[in-house]
Write a structure and sequence with these properties.
The chain has 374 residues and is an alpha+beta fold. It is built from 12 helices and 14 strands.
Length: 374
């Protein structure tokens, strides 16, 4: 028996605790946290395992890690808040808010195209380094000047790293704030959650470094000039970048959010409960419901698989259930169900090669679903 899972678990969800314990015991997980909100109550708040392969540093209650693309869900929430305040229209042209973006045939690219990976800017033509990713002005200037790789709005192609800059610049043009600052003031501080897009100095010691997968498979099996290969080649993803101070302190709203399962689940409780959580209303019911209303479906040009998107979030293809999801490179997982008013989050440090969650997060989610119907 390895280190025991710690934290709080409502007896109704004991299967969730058993699933996390089994994953840690088998070595599938090194360290991880799991949280579930149900009808706006934090019914599962668990953590366990270690931060290092030598198993000398235990995962603590306040450990935070880089959750990669689960960060995108925080960017989506920021944009939904702006839309709810009538400061942003998802059906408006991006250039209305960001005039320079109209260059190279992008005059009629809509804001929802950015939200839904349909803008044709899933990668970059100009080669950029890891350090370039910390330079907001450089990346947004390059994206504004670039021509789309396909007709915007006609198909999706996962904007793995570029999406955060695109959404963040629209937000900055409207509010004058960076997305990290806006998120802190309008979401994290209001909900009292420990999630950061750009980690402050005082939180740096609590970061647990990710254990990268043996080999990155992003775009590896795609033809050299395909959308998939070009997307993941530039900007290139290297999980070791997440260990650096530059990465931790930068604002990369598609990929460098730091938090744990508790913070992710509590933030998503706002959407699970139709715009309000713990007495704090961030969205109207109408805007909150938009995350479970399909916008675009089809074979994603970057991921090479069929996907259905609402505003930003993924939806189970063909499902009529009011449920949406997203995940991050390495395995972090988030699910929001508006029918039963629950949110699920799984956050770990041992990375799986895939982009969209893995069997560990699936097992946790299945344990939650089983608990709710038993």
């Amino acid at each position: 028996m390895g280190v025991l899972v710690q934290g709080h678990c409502d007896p109704r969800f004991e299967k969730v605790q058993a699933t996390l314990q089994a994953s840690l015991d088998s070595g599938a997980d090194l360290g991880a946290s799991v949280a579930v909100t149900y009808k706006d109550e934090l019914v599962v708040d668990l953590y366990g395992g270690h931060l290092d392969e030598d198993k000398t540093q235990p995962w603590q209650a306040d450990t935070i890690v880089n959750v990669y693309s689960t960060t995108k869900t925080m960017a989506f929430l920021c944009m939904l808040i702006l839309a709810d305040r009538r400061a942003l229209d998802f059906d408006e042209n991006v250039a209305t808010y960001w005039p320079e973006f109209a260059a190279n045939g992008k005059e009629t690219v809509k804001v929802w195209h950015l939200m839904n990976h349909a803008a044709g800017l899933s990668g970059m033509d100009t080669p950029v380094s890891s350090e370039d990713m910390y330079d907001w002005e450089k990346i947004t200037t390059l994206l504004a000047a670039q021509a789309p790789w396909w007709e915007p709005g006609s198909a999706t192609g996962y904007h793995a790293l570029t999406q955060g800059y695109l959404l963040g610049e629209v937000l900055r043009r409207i509010t004058g704030q960076t997305m990290g600052t806006f998120f802190k003031q309008e979401v994290a501080d209001k909900l009292g959650v420990d999630f950061h897009i750009g980690v402050p100095d005082e939180a740096l010691p609590r970061i647990g470094h990710l254990l990268p997968p043996p080999v990155s498979t992003l775009g590896a099996n795609s033809p050299n000039n395909s959308i998939a290969a070009r997307t993941f080649a530039n900007p290139a993803g290297d999980a070791r970048d997440s260990w650096t101070l530059g990465w931790k302190q930068a604002e990369i709203p598609a990929a460098n959010g730091h938090g744990n399962a508790r913070s992710v689940a509590k933030i998503h409780a706002v959407l699970a409960n139709l715009g309000e959580s713990q007495g704090v209303r961030l969205l109207s019911e109408e805007t909150a419901r938009s995350v479970v209303q399909p916008r675009i479906s089809g074979n994603d040009l970057a991921l090479g698989m069929p996907l259905s998107y609402s505003l930003g979030f993924g939806m189970p293809p063909g499902s009529k259930r009011k449920l949406c999801y997203w995940g991050g490179w390495g395995g972090s997982t988030a699910i929001i169900d508006q029918e039963q008013n629950f949110s699920i989050s799984y956050v770990m440090n041992k990375m799986h090669p895939g982009l969209m969650g893995d069997e560990r997060g699936i097992a946790i989610s299945q344990a939650v679903f089983t608990s709710l119907v038993s």
